[in-house]
Structures are given as structure tokens and as C-alpha cells.
Amino acid sequence: IRCWSNIPFITVPLSRAHGKSFAHRSELKHAKRIVVKLGSAVVTRGDECGLALGRLASIVEQVSMLQNQGREMMIVTSGAVAFGKQRLRHEILLSQSVRQALHSGQSQLKDMAIPVLEARACAAAGQSGLMALYEAMFTQYSICAAQILVTNLDFHDEQKRRNLNGTLHELLRMNIVPIINTNDAVVPPPEPNSDLQGVNVISVKDNDSLAARLAVEMKTDLLIVLSDVEGLFDSPPGSDDAKLIDIFYPGDQQSVTFGTKSRVGMGGMEAKVKAALWALQGGTSVVIANGTHPKISGHVITDIVEGKKVGTFFSEVKPAGPTVEQQAEMARAGGRTLAALQPEQRAEIIYRLADLLTDQREEILLANKKDLEEAENKGRLALPLLKRLSLSTSKLNSLAIGLRQIAASSQDSVGRVIRRTRIAKDLDLEQVTVPIGVLLVIFESRPDCLPQVSALAIASGNGLLLKGGKEAAHSNQILHHLTQEALSVHGVRDAVQLVNTREEVEDLCRLDKLIDLIIPRGSSQLVRNIQKAAKGIPVMGHSEGICHVYVDTDASVEKVTRIIRDSKCEYPAACNALETLLIHRDLLRTPLFDQIIDMLRVEQVKIHAGPKFASYLTFSPSEVKSLRTEYGDLECCIEVVDSVKEAVEHIHKYGSSHTDVIITENEKTAEFFLQHVDSACVFWNASTRFSDGYRFGLGAEVGISTSRIHARGPVGIEGLLTTKWLLRGDNHVVSDFSDHGSMKYLHESLPLPQRNAS
């Protein structure tokens, strides 16, 4: 016997043998048999008289979709009383109006009082109509539904239990959705907490307990309980500091304070939790979620089955480490402590991390070797991504040099005064730099990103959450361990957190109260997905790196092939690699053009012809499918333009505002290009590959931003800072500055304090 609260759960005949519930949300997609419990607040309208038809139609659509995927769906529904109440009120009003008209002979009717309607009578009047409505809705999806009315006695009588069990299994076998409800027309009034008085099985006294009992009886994989609140909170919803509990574990109920029950229905949240824990003990996973919110009710059931972070998930498996919410809170607290350190203390941490990268290189490379071997064995990474995943001694040495650059340049980053204004006598205003807060950096196949981003976060005093790809798990683990070792020098170990839970990226992007900025580093698809998923959190980055090189008529023969080769071939998987080569029309069929083509062939670069370029050739390479393509490999597009102005127009139309280059010896043409191309980085006679934080002297970068606010281009320490205003006065009030006041505004600019010479 296992006990929850003071209700023992015992094995009874025909109930499910003790199975294992799902340990993680991500496993819910494997649920085959699912019970959806619809609370009264979900099914009924706000006036508690009649059904919420739009909401009900959406729920039926989701259940039908899952049923048609081959799952076995069952619904435990409320609503018969509300539907019957609507019908009976209508009948009473109609009856009263006829009698009154007959007795008075007047057409104008007086106010008519409606008697209190008995719930069992309402249920009797509403059950047939409710079922007819479900049948009509499910018919739209070619699904048959069947009604089953039960009472508590049906579970205590052995023969009735067998019959019920057999009926449900037969309906599921025939692909019919059973719709189950307590037979409220005959059920006796509930006895509150009757199952707490030594009864060894849960009583069916409301639809919560019915759903739990049914889920265990039918060996259900998942029970979804929909109510009018988002899930289970650590204190009554709406109270100060109430937080939604993402995962609830048996034994945690002591830390929860329950509020009042919902506006309708028999059970409150306490009843739902008790029923959920009882079902969990029987091997059924449970999620309690909001089925009434207009923004999520249209996909709440399918989202839960897909494993998304919706509502409260009940699990018997408690993770060893903290939740991601706890990690974010730890990062914020650690970041604030980090920001309060002296600049030289933050620099000391970064210098220590740089030393650890070289001192512990053997352990790092051994962990990286495991990642590479696993990736190669599984064959899940393309060659360019394998190159990104790979670490080497030279890479670690370069990382260490970059980190030391960050440490040296971070001495005067946080708390730097960038503006001073004397507002009035003895009233001085300062604008100073401060950290943004908590950063979430999501990166793929780039373990070298972890120490780079960590160093920048440390230098700027930001808390940091890191989410790396599973393909670099071993490398990320050792690098994060070394980062925390360096942070421990000044007791701020928690400022940088590595997310190791099964959190999906989409779920992380919803933590808008815990995360202040998201920085994705990876494929264009990853960046687009994050930009789409982020709700209320700004995203800094670029979705694509479609970089152009324009070869002008006045280009130097010596410079052209060197710059193009470096831009395309040095690291083709990088976001700052050349993707489209624009060539002035006058250079076609010239020795310079032939040299470019020969060099690309030698380097085994596959060429795609743009529409205009293809029109000049008898036998052209394969014509490009889109001029807006990031290849990320030894491939590029060649297109022809008539002038520098047309090159600029092409870049604006098809580029991604990342990095664009002109090769020319004509200074006037070059300046036109530099001034008119609206990209984050615009170069003259230099490779696109210079678009990089390390090469810019920033030490490293958290990414390259193509947005037009805050930071743009390679983002270093400066891009991870914001500002706040400090006003120092002496008994100043605004009324003193009115027309008849004693003070006047000065608004004088004051000199800035001298910056640290280092």
C-alpha cells in the first residue's frame, strides 16, 4: 500500500495494475489512451445558464484530431445542469407568460419571478440536449460519440464495474468517443471529503474524482483536467507573488494554500489535486490546465499532448537539479551580485576562466571527442556542423586570447557615466550603464560559444542562462563546470546557469517574467523559430546571413580573387560567409571574370546562376531557385548588375542586412556603396569574414545583430548594457519650478569623469 495524504491507494479488482506514469512532459506525445475532463466553468457560459458553444466546439475539434491520429479519447463532461437550467427557465417563462396573459387579458406582462431550480431536475432536462450537441459536433469530423451516465454505486457493485469496463473497452475498440458524466438526475447530495474518512478508494462525488477513478480503471496514459485557472499555484491565484507550479510532485501539497473553488461545479482546486494525485498513484499522468482562456483554449489539449509547457504537470519523478525557473532566479540573483563587484574582480574571474581553458585542455578535448564520435555514429550532423562542433588546441588558445581581451576591456563597462546634466542648483542628473538583467543564449553545435558568451555576461554583470544543443552535451558540461569554477573566485557561481532539463526552446521563450533578452546563435531556422516563439521577450540576432560581395569595374585584379576566396572558402558554414557574388556587367568575358570562375572551381564551389547572369550564357550553371538563399556550404550564387546603384538595390531587395562588401579602387564609388548600403556591416576591399567580435577587437561576441534598435553588428560588452538615470537633489520638488516658483531649470551639460586609462 502506498499512501498519499491520508488516502491509501490499494489494488482493487479490475483496476489498472501499477504502471509507470510519464516522468517528463516530452513523453506525453506517446500517450495512447487519454481522458479529458471538462469542468463546469469550461463548459458553461459566464452567466451559468447555457453552454459556451464556441469553446465546446474547439475542444471537440482537438479531441477529434487526436482521435484521428489513432489515440483512444474519452471525455468526462459537466454541463448537463447548466443546459437543463437554460431549458427549464425558458419553459417556466413561457408557461408563466401564457397564464398571466389569460388571467389579466393584458398584452403587457409584469415582471415574473423564476423559482429556484432543483439541480437534479435541471440535469434530467439537460442530459439529452447536451449529448445531442456533442453528437452533432463530433459528426462534423466523422466520429461517433456515445453517452455513459454513472454514479458512485456503479464502482462499488462488482458486476456493474465489470459491465462499465467492458462497455468502455468495446466503444474504444470501435473508434467511438465515450462521453461520461455523473448521473446528476439521481445522484444523492455529495458528502464533502467522504473519501477522507477511512474509505480505501476514492469516492465519485464530483467529475474530478470520476475522471480520476475512470482513468485508473481504464489504465489510461494521460488525464487532462481543464478548469478556469492556468493550473496549480503556490498560493491562491490573484494573490501577491502567486506563481504557477510547472511540475507538482506527491508530497508538495503541504506547501500549497488553496483558495475558494470555481464559480460553478462541485470541486475546487483542492479536489482536483487530490483526484490528480490519486490517478498518478494508479499510473496515470495528469495535467491541470486552463480550458477557458480565449488565446490558448483553441489548442490547449493538443499542446499538452505535444509536451508543451501548459498548466501543471503531475510527476512522481523529481529531477535531481533545480527547475529552469529556479535557475533563472538564481542567475538573476547571481547577476546582481556580479554587477556589484569591482571591475577588477569581474576581470579576475574572466582571466581565471581563460587560464582554465588552456590548463584543462586535455579534459575539454576528451569531452569534445565523445561528442564528435556520437555525432558521427548517429550521422545526424552535416560536415559544416561537425566542423562547428569540433574543438582543438588552437581554438582553445584563440578562445583564451579573446577572453583576456574581454577582461582588459571590461574595466570600465558597468556603472560608466555617459551623460551628466545639472538640472538646477544642487540637482544633478547622471545616465550610467547597467546590465540588461538575465540573458538566455541558445546555441547549436558551437561549444566554443559557451566560454565566449559567459565572459561577456560576466564583464557586463548580467545573469546568464545557456541552452546548448544536445550534440555538444559533453563539451558544454565541462566548459560550464570550468566557468562556475572561475566564478567561485568571488562567490558568484550561480550567475551562469546551463539548462540541462528537457525544456523545449519554445517553453524557454515563454519565461517573460524571468528572462530579459534572448540571443540565438545557430541556423537561420533556429533563429526564426525563436523569434516566432518569443512572447514578450526581445530577441537579438539575425535570422539569415546572406552576405554579398560586389566586384566593380575598377576592382584590382590582385584583390578580387583573394577577397572572394577568403569570404566564401575560409569557413563556408559561418553566417558571415559570402553567399551571393555580384559582378558588374562590363567584367563578363574578361580575364578577371575567368580568374574568378577558375578559382571557385579549384576550391570546389558549386555555382548557381542568377536570372540575369544565366541570360548571358549559352550553357549556364543551374539557375538559382531564390536570390535570397543562405547556403552555408561551398556553394554561391553569381548575378550580374549594371552599376553600383543596381548592386545596392539588389542587396536591399535580397540581402539580410548582415555584411556586404565592395571591391573597387574607385574611392567615390566605394563611398557611395558604404553610405547607401543599409546593413549592419559594410566593407571596402576587405573580406566579409571580418564581421566578427574578436576581429573587431571586442574580445568575442554573443552574436551578430541585424536589428535596428539597441545593438547592431557584432555584439560585445557594450551591446549587453542598458542605462539608468540617477538624480541627486536636496529637498527639490517640481512645484518650485512653476511660473511663480523660486527655482529655474539650468539644463547645463557637465564634464564626464575620466575613464579608466586601461
UniProtKB/TrEMBL annotation:
Subunit (UniProt): Can form homodimers/multimers.
Domain Aspartate/glutamate/uridylate kinase residue range list: 32-290
Organism annotation: Leiothrix lutea (Red-billed leiothrix)
UniProt xrefs under Pfam families: AA_kinase, Aldedh
Predominant subcellular localization, coarse grouping: mitochondrion
GO BP terms, alphabetized: L-proline biosynthetic process
Keyword annotations: Amino-acid biosynthesis, ATP-binding, Kinase, Mitochondrion, Multifunctional enzyme, NADP, Nucleotide-binding, Oxidoreductase, Proline biosynthesis, Transferase
Domain of life: Eukaryota
Function description: Bifunctional enzyme that converts glutamate to glutamate 5-semialdehyde, an intermediate in the biosynthesis of proline, ornithine and arginine.
Cellular compartments annotated: Mitochondrion matrix
Similarity comment text for this entry: In the C-terminal section; belongs to the gamma-glutamyl phosphate reductase family. In the N-terminal section; belongs to the glutamate 5-kinase family.
HAMAP family: ProA, ProB
GO molecular function: ATP binding; glutamate 5-kinase activity; glutamate-5-semialdehyde dehydrogenase activity
Signal peptide (UniProt feature, chain positions): none
Enzyme Commission number(s) of this protein: 1.2.1.41, 2.7.2.11
Protein name in UniProt: Delta-1-pyrroline-5-carboxylate synthase
InterPro entries: AceGlu_kinase-like_sf (IPR036393), Ald_DH/histidinol_DH (IPR016161), Ald_DH_C (IPR016163), Ald_DH_N (IPR016162), Aldehyde_DH_dom (IPR015590), Asp/Glu/Uridylate_kinase (IPR001048), G-glutamylP_reductase_CS (IPR020593), G5K_ProBA (IPR041744)
